[in-house]
UniProtKB/TrEMBL annotation:
Lineage summary: Bacteria, Bacillati, Actinomycetota, Actinomycetes, Kitasatosporales
Keywords recorded for this protein, A-Z: ATP-binding, Kinase, Lipid biosynthesis, Lipid metabolism, Magnesium, Metal-binding, Nucleotide-binding, Phospholipid biosynthesis, Phospholipid metabolism, Transferase
Domain DAGKc intervals: 1-135
SMART domains, A to Z: DAGKc
Entry keyword annotation includes Transferase: yes
The name this protein goes by in its record: DAGKc domain-containing protein
A Pfam short name: YegS_C
Length: 296
C-alpha cells in the first residue's frame, strides 16, 4: 500500500484535545515511516469534501481524529471504497472507538496501533448502519434520548455536556411514552408504547451507555432495544443500569434483532452517532462488511 495517508481532524473535539491528539497520532505514524497529510476543513461539509477528495486521489488510509461526529463524517467518505479507515479517539463520547476496541484519549498509542496494522496488512471488515445515503457506526437513537438532544441543541447556555444534563431533567418532567410502529426485516410489525427505541450496530452511545449491549459489528444484524411504557420513577431506576448493560434484564425493556428496521412515530427525530438524521419514519439497514478498519 501507499505510504501516503490522511488524517481528518476535528481540532475542537474534546475541548481542544483533537488538535493535540492529531499531533501525537501524526508523530507516531511518521515515526513508523508514513507520510501524513492533515485535513481539517472549513466546517463539516468542507471537511467531508476534502476527505472524499483524498480517498478519490488514492490515499493509503483515512484516519479520523476526534469524537463520534468526526468518525461519522469520515465514514461517509470511505465507506464502500476499500480504503482503510482508522480512528483516533479524542472526543467526548468515543462510542464507535469503544466498539472497535481502540484506546480512548491515547492518540500516540492509537497511532502506533494503526501504523502496525497498515504495515502488516492487518484489517477487518465491519458492519455499518445505513439510513438512505447516510451511514452510522454505533447507534441510531429515537424517543426520550433524541428529545433530550433536540432540547439541548436549542439551548444556548450552558456550554458542554451540562447543557444536555439540564435538557434531560426538563424532558423527564414532561415526557410521556410514545406510540411506535416497529417493522423488522420488512414483515414483523410491532405496535408498542415506548419511552425510547435504540438501533445498535455497536453497543453504546452517549459516552459509554451500553444501550444495546449485545450488538456485534460483524454479525450483519442490529440489536434493537425498546424501553417500553414506564413511569418517570421507573425510568430513573433503570437508567443507571445502562452503563453496565444490565437494563436489558428489566421487565420494561425488550430486545430484538434484525437486519433492517423501520421506526414510525409522530414528532420524534432520530440521531445516529449523535448526529441529527431527521424525523421519523426512518428505515435503517445493517450492511455487512461495509468498511475496512485498521487497528486492534
Amino acid at each position: 500500500m501507499t505510504s501516503e495517508i490522511t488524517l481528518i481532524v476535528n481540532p475542537t473535539a474534546g475541548g481542544g484535545r483533537g488538535a493535540r491528539a492529531a499531533r501525537s497520532a501524526a508523530s507516531a505514524l511518521r515515526d513508523a515511516g508514513f507520510h501524513v497529510a492533515t485535513v481539517t476543513g472549513d466546517g463539516p461539509e468542507d471537511a467531508l469534501s476534502r476527505a472524499r477528495t483524498a480517498v478519490e486521489e488514492g490515499t493509503g488510509a483515512l484516519i479520523a481524529v476526534g469524537g463520534d461526529g468526526m468518525a461519522n463524517l469520515a465514514l461517509q467518505a470511505v465507506v464502500g471504497t476499500g480504503t482503510p479507515f482508522g480512528l483516533v479517539a479524542a472526543g467526548t463520547g468515543n462510542d464507535f472507538a469503544r466498539a472497535l476496541g481502540m484506546p480512548l484519549r491515547e492518540p500516540a498509542t492509537a497511532g502506533r496501533m494503526i501504523a502496525d496494522a497498515l504495515k502488516s496488512g492487518r484489517s477487518r471488515d465491519v458492519d455499518l448502519g445505513r439510513i438512505g445515503d447516510r451511514w452510522f457506526g454505533a447507534v441510531l437513537a429515537s424517543g426520550f434520548d433524541s428529545r433530550v438532544n433536540d432540547r439541548g441543541n436549542r439551548m444556548r447556555a450552558p456550554l458542554g455536556r451540562f447543557k444536555y444534563d439540564l435538557a434531560m431533567v426538563a424532558e423527564l418532567a414532561a415526557f410521556k411514552p410514545l406510540p411506535y410502529r416497529i417493522t423488522l426485516d420488512g414483515g414483523d410489525v410491532r405496535e408498542v408504547e415506548a419511552t425510547l427505541v435504540a438501533v445498535g450496530n455497536g453497543p453504546s452511545y452517549g459516552g459509554g451507555m451500553r444501550i444495546c449491549p449485545g450488538a456485534d459489528l460483524t454479525d450483519g444484524l442490529f440489536d434493537i432495544t425498546v424501553v417500553g411504557e414506564c413511569s418517570r420513577a421507573t425510568l430513573l431506576r433503570v437508567f443507571p443500569r445502562v452503563y453496565r448493560g444490565t437494563h436489558v434484564d428489566h421487565p420494561v425493556v425488550t430486545t430484538l434483532r434484525a437486519a433492517s428496521v423501520e421506526l414510525v412515530a409522530e414528532d420524534v427525530t432520530g440521531y445516529a452517532d449523535g448526529e441529527y438524521v431527521g424525523p421519523l419514519p426512518l428505515t435503517a439497514r445493517c450492511v455487512p462488511g461495509a468498511v475496512r478498519v485498521v487497528g486492534p
